[in-house]
What does this fold into?
Amino acid sequence: MNNNSTSNTNGSRSLSLDLLKGVAIIAVVLYHIGICKYGYLGVDVFLVIAGYLTTKSIIRQQDNGSFGYFCFLNKRVFRLLPLLLIVSVLSLVLGYVLMLPMALKNTAESAAATPLFLNNVVQYITSADYWDGSNDYKPLMHTWYVALLMQFYVVYALLLLLGKKLGGGKKYIYVIGFMFMASLLYYLIQTNDASAKFYLLPARLFEFAAGGGVALYAMGMLRVKDRLTVYLLLLLLVALLFVNGSLESGQVKLLISTIFSCALLALPWEMSSNDIKWKPLRMPVGALAYLGVASYSFYLWHQVIIAFYRYVINDDFAVPDYLIIFALCIIIGWLSYRYVERGLDDITRLKWGKVAFNIVSVIVLIVIVGCSYKWYKQNGLVRDIPELELYVATSGDIESQDYNQRNESMDVDFPENGKQNILVVGDSFARDWINILREAGIDSTMNISIHRDADAVLNDRITKADYVFVANCSPFDIYYPYLKRMMEKRFYRVGRKNYTYRNGIVYNNIRYGKGNYSQSFLLPVSEEKEMQEEKVVFGEKYIDMMSPIRQNNGKYAFFTPDKHFYSHDGIHLTHAGAKEYARRLNVKKYFR
It folds into this structure.
């Protein structure tokens, strides 16, 4: 998926590398479709390959005196940028036509950041959890990898220049080895910011550096018997054994994926199609290798296709959906590689080619950033959405997300005014519960306070509270140490809620006559089971948040009786949703 050459020293392509890239890109595509559980590790294979190819390319150019830092970066931008511009434009256009405001706002953020090679930072800030189900509907979510790759080129080329200034040869080992150890130590050290280790360069550099080490080995600069290599391996062992890290299953799988990728690159298994003796195998091997050759195009288009398919056509995939999506990825990926990637190579050979490309790129980039900024400032609201009570003429009003967010200001101590005190404990689900209480008018007769952290503040507010509600989407166990004291009050456990991420497809079904306001959904069996388990544990102290919208057929309603969405994002309540819950739950009964 990287855009360095995968050729041998004699100029022919490396079939082995292309096959490895082909396997990796298929794994990534299948993961995003929802078939291959650990297919996301294909990206880690690409990181190692990028480090391997970049190291070989830069050192060879330095050795023959042809390397220029800015020339190197210019070539990388020229290879990466055209497709980024195209997928960003298409995502914005389709988003404008098809998406609900929050989805369009998110797409606008990513569309502006993608061609600027900053989408990993944007994803880190706005969508910290890569595995959050809402990411399945984001067409540009995956371009975080391309941003990471470009940032690696910027930093790594400077480090190899330093290695050259120090004298080259084994000095490269010092530079790459230091980068590897520093990054790996950061990755292993236990922190509360797991998303930074996923999206940002410092925790990913060791994978690139691992590929760089294999490149040094392949070029004869690094031998396993070298004393320096032994020292590096010893440091690695010490890091794994003694660093206060949290080697969870995901981290272990990533490390294993990195190690195996390095091993495959280091093994002398180079081959050509002629080495495949069994002729029926040559065609599938050739097809897989071609996927590797065109992996950048396949990678950029696959998530755009999958996200809009989920958003407009169907998000409950069956065999026909898998086949259609995969076929679309192959066809569009091939067209993109043939006529964009290779077509640009032909254009740039012309005298005016690069100049024209630069002018067009700047113009398109300005348009993308301009439109993205405008729609972002409009909160993604480009048409009236009665189902969300959002109208262009009043776009300055509180948007759905702020309706939930506003309750953060209630994280304060109870005032001494003689009223009874209600403590709501939890995260954004707790803010939702407060909205329900406010819509029922409870805040006019009682004091309401919210708190999330399990700390001394929580302990103090439990003491002063008359009522305690725990409403959180994360596991309840962080509040176990406080449970006994909370249950000494009038205590309730507010159940979890899930309205799925299908608002987009439901909304488009109504717009295009394929559905009406009676559309409904089923919860996954695992979530139904979890709700039942909590109901058994808490008994009459459990508030079932899904039963008010459960229909006779066992499905759940998307819309209130007055045709408004219960949720704007599949998790939190709209204003209309909170009002309807306040009515259906008869909230005042909990305070009698």
